[in-house]
Structure prediction request, 67 residues.
Amino acid sequence: MLADEQATPEQFAILRAMSGERRLKLAEQMFWSARKLKAAGVRHQHPDWPEEKVIAEVNRIILHARN
Prediction:
């Protein structure tokens, strides 16, 4: 992780103040946002692919993602 990607103390304080339910909801929103962004990238790279293939590729990429 790059130095500028580190959470600030203020961000940690905000997250700690949130309920577990709220943190889980934010994580879910980030997951779906990441999928939409990845799908847009796949569509851009492969404009001729049908939507089913785009979704399958996004699923494959996320399934095999590494830290």
Summary: The helical segments are 9-17, 20-45, 51-63. The first helix runs from residue 9 to 17. The radius of gyration is 16 Å. The chain has a mean pLDDT of 93.
